[in-house]
Amino acid sequence: MPADTLLSDHELMLAVRDGDLDSLGVLFERHHGPLFGFLVKLTGDRTAAEDITQTVFQRMLKYRHTYRDEGQFASWMYHLARRCAADHFRRSNAAPAATDPLDLEAHADDRPLADESAAKNDDHALLRHALGRLDRDDREILLLSRFQELSFAEIATILECSVGAAKVRAHRALRELRDIYLQLQKENLS
Fold first, then answer.
1. Cα–Cα distance between 49 and 53 in angstroms, integer?
2. CA–CA distance, 116 with 118 (Å, rounded to integer)
3. In the CATH hierarchy, which top-level class contains the domain 98-190?
4. How many other CB atoms are there within 10 angstroms of residue 37's CB atom?
5. Taking a C-beta distance cutoff of 8 angstroms, is the pair 140, 39 a contact?
């Protein structure tokens, strides 16, 4: 196993900052998937998310000298990602699209619990649809806290706010998501 794969993200980014550009490849391998997933959910557009993900890693290289010796690589990366996404929306003059629900066409299933599985899939699709209806800031904080599982201290750093403000924003966004979900559920029953 190469020695650089044993290093922490922070140590790798310090190496990149100091000129070891190969270490960025290790960071790319570790974080490309989660970052892409975050951006797909944020933008609702896989192509845009791919482009933004590439831009984030390009900016990591370009702005490597701005990385501080404080050990919060994920916070720094998601902060760059937010800026890259904002630049993308500003350039394209478009708001993020609602996340497309997966194609949940009914398929015959002989398993005894097929109806429960279908109901669960419908609930997931409804939740993705509700998430897509949130405004970008609310969707962003829920993605960071619930899907990327970042701490509120990390989220506060990314969003440039206090930990308390990040918690309040997450709570309000979760409440808004619940309201949208319940409204969609009610519409589906009608």
1. 6
2. 5
3. mainly alpha
4. 15
5. no
- Whole-model pTM above 0.70? no
Low-confidence ranges of the chain (pLDDT < 70): 1-5, 71, 93-122, 190
pLDDT value of position 147: 83
Q: Please work out, in degrees rounded to the nearest 5, the angle formed at the alpha carbon of residue 189 by the alpha carbons of 185 and 190.
A: 120
Which CATH architecture best describes the domain 1-97? Orthogonal Bundle (1.10)
Residues of the chain with CATH 1.10.1740.10: 1-97
Token pair 């990390």 is found at 154
- Among candidate residues 84, 97, 15, the one with its CA nearest the CA of residue 56: 84
Which of 98, 85, 21, 92 has its CA nearest to residue 54?
85
Region of residue 2 (left: phi > 0; alpha: psi -120 to 50; beta: else): beta
Sign of the four-CA dihedral 37, 42, 48, 52: negative
Where in the sequence of the chain do the CATH 1.10.10.10 domains occur? 98-190
Q: Helix, strand, or coil here: 75? A: helix
